[in-house]
Specification:
The complex is a heterodimer of chains A (about 110) and B (about 110). By secondary structure, chain A is an all-beta fold. Chain A has no helices and eleven strands. The radius of gyration of chain A is 13 Å and the shape is globular. Chain A starts with a strand and ends with a strand. Chain B has no helices and eleven strands. In chain B, the strands form two sheets. In chain B, strands 2, 4, 5, 6, 9, 10 and 11 form a seven-stranded mixed β-sheet that branches. Chain B has a four-stranded antiparallel β-sheet with strand order 1-3-8-7, with no helix packed on it. The chains are: A mainly beta (about 110), B mainly beta (about 110).
Chain lengths: ~110, ~110
């Protein structure tokens, strides 16, 4: 089964609003990553947070990690129409090899 | 793009025929992955490789085999294609998840089995 599960499956907001997506996972991890996928394209890496970190920022992105709850959240602030995409979390399951993804959250930002 | 190329980009094949998809990298990444993406399932790991001739199964490996005879190429073979293997296939490369480095993805191969 897939390691990460994103929630919600779909999210629709207005431009300028914040978007929050959540990810839950099942086993211990070394780090957790978030990726973005524009329709029909390959995934692009957004941000990585290590298991010993609780929060990380990158531009308009804020990621939190709670290893006790095996969950992470991705916050996109001041969203733009160009942020419309699917967002996936990925975990390594404690290994150096396997990188498994969740089902993703489809974010639609309406102008 | 991070020097990763998938070929072909599109393919239509008949049920029962063998199909090979190729992933080629120019970045000397140790780890290579094959995923399939289907609506409602996200990305599912088929097989991965952690070195030349070192491969292992992912969560949906039945009906697929892989080979990696050199660092830059990772081949995915559908021994006898079935309609359930109609999907978009993505290859990815990485220096290693624990190393804390990102994975880079190819543009995908859209495979249709008729």
């Amino acid at each position: 089964s897939q390691q990460g599960e994103e929630d919600p499956q779909a999210l629709s907001i207005q431009e300028g609003e914040n978007a929050t997506m959540n990810c839950s996972y099942k086993t211990s991890i070394n780090n957790l990553q978030w990726y973005r996928q524009n329709s029909g394209r390959g995934l692009v890496h957004l941000i990585l947070i290590r298991s010993n970190e609780r929060e990380k920022h990158s531009g308009r992105l804020r990621v939190t990690l709670d290893t006790s709850k095996k969950s992470s959240s991705l916050l996109i602030t001041a969203s733009r129409a160009a942020d419309t995409a699917s967002y996936f979390c990925a975990t390594d399951g404690g290994s150096n090899y396997k990188l498994t993804f969740g089902k993703g959250t489809l974010l639609t930002v309406n102008p | 793009d991070a020097g990763i190329t998938q070929s072909p980009r599109h393919k239509v094949t008949e049920t029962g025929t063998p199909v090979t998809l190729r992933c080629h990298q120019t970045e000397n990444h140790r780890y290579m992955y094959w995923y399939r993406q289907d609506p409602g399932h996200g990305l599912r790991l088929i097989h991965y490789s952690y070195g030349v001739k070192d491969t292992d199964k992912g969560e949906v490996s039945d009906g697929y085999s892989v080979s990696r005879s050199k660092t830059e190429d990772f081949l995915l073979t559908l021994e006898s294609a079935t309609s359930s293997q109609t999907s978009v296939y993505f290859c990815a490369i990485s220096f290693g998840a624990v190393a804390g480095t990102e994975a880079f993805f190819g543009q995908g191969t859209r495979l249709t089995v008729v």
